[in-house]
Amino acid sequence: MAWPFLAHFDNGAMGTLEATRFATGRKNYQRFEINGSRGSLVFNFERMNELRFYSLDDTPHFQGFRTILVTESVHPYVSAWWPPGHGLGYEHTFTHAAADLLNAVAEDRMPQSDFAEGVGVQAVLEMVEESWAQKRWIPVKE
C-alpha cells in the first residue's frame, strides 16, 4: 500500500510525498525532488553520488537536467575518503553519522538530528495518519 500525501508549508510552498514498500522494481529508490520556478534539484539514493540539476538560467540550447558528481574533495565528508570521482557507498553514511555524533560530543554541542527533531517528525507522521483517516487537511501542531 502507498501512503501519498500533500503538504502546504508556511512559506507557501507545496509538497507531495509518497512512501511504499511495494514499488515493484525499486530497490532503495528514495528520491527527493525540489522544483522551483527557476530550476529543479533531484537526489536518488540508488545513485547516491550524484545530483540532477536543471536551471532556467542556462542558455536555451544548454537547458536540460545535468548530473553533478558530488565526490569532489570540496564536498563535506568526501575529503576524508577516496580521490575525486571515486564513489562512496551505503556504509559510509553510517561512518559519517558516527563521526557527526562524536564531533558533537567532543565540541559539547547537540548533534544533528536531535531528539526534539525526531519528535517533530513523529508529530508530522501522526497528523498525516489523522488526515488520511478523516479525509481532510490537518494542520501540524508545533
Notes on the protein architecture:
- By secondary structure, this protein is α+β, with helices and mostly antiparallel strands.
- The protein has a domain of 84 residues.
- The chain contains 2 helices and 6 strands, in the order ββββββαα.
- The strands form 2 sheets. Strands 3-4-5-6 form a 4-stranded antiparallel sheet, with no helix packed on it. The protein has a two-stranded antiparallel sheet with strand order 1-2.
- A hairpin with a 3-residue loop joins strand 3 and strand 4.
- It starts with a strand and ends in an 8-residue tail after the last helix.
- The relative contact order is 0.09.
**How are the strands ordered across the major sheet?**
3-4-5-6
* Number of helices, where a helix is a run of at least 4 consecutive DSSP H or I residues: 2
Oligomer: single chain
Which whole number gives the mean pLDDT? 89
Gross morphology: globular
Number of strands: 6
Q: Taking Cα atoms only, what radius of gyration do you get, to the nearest Å?
A: 19 Å
Portion of residues in beta strands equals 15-25%
Order of helices and strands: EEEEEEHH
Based on secondary structure, the structural category is: alpha+beta
Low-pLDDT runs of 5+ residues are none
Tell me the helix content: 25-40%
Could you tell me how far the N terminus lies from the C terminus, measured between alpha carbons in angstroms? Answer: 29 Å
Largest sheet: 4 strands, antiparallel
